[in-house]
Amino acid sequence: MPPMIGWKKRLLKIAGILLVLLLLLAAAMYFFPKTFLCVDSGPVQADVIIVLGGGSHERPVRAAELFDQQAAPRILISGAGDYYINRHILITNGIPSIKIGVEDQSKTTRENAEFCYKILRAENVHRAIIVTSWYHSRRALKTFEHFAPGIKFYSRPSYFGLNHAPWSRDYSRRVYLEYIKLPGYWVGYGVWPL
Q1: CATH of 37-189, one of 3.90.1010.10, 3.40.50.800, 3.40.50.620, 2.30.30.240
Q2: What's the pLDDT score for residue 3?
């Protein structure tokens, strides 16, 4: 057999193996999204709890639970779209309004991190807990770590919807869209997802 034909066969075999591995990874990501997307730091203490906008308004409920467990003495709401409703949910869940701060300009996770960083630095915050949806927790944590250096961040996500199978079409879209946003933030902003 001429050397060129043997080389082509080896290349095709390697390409086939890589394709199979890629398909297996894609299947694992589809069937086990929590394994790839969710980061939970476990019980921690911090200076502030940051509630990110979005989700199905389960995030402020989770933040109120953490506040009641004395994970942090105050809460900062971040996000232009639904900060008012999140503040209302926190107050309805027994959080004193004086313990709630608001960053109401950000529209993306990157802006959440950048705009909160200014507030956190001004208030001399050293440790913060990020509360978001479970499927958004990896990207949120990594984005805050990237854009807010010098502060230790923890993730304590809400698990709303995780075990409600089958998921609604909108919920599935939000979960699987994170697989596009994670590498997008890596390429666009240098936020390493792992």
Answers
A1: 3.40.50.620
A2: 60
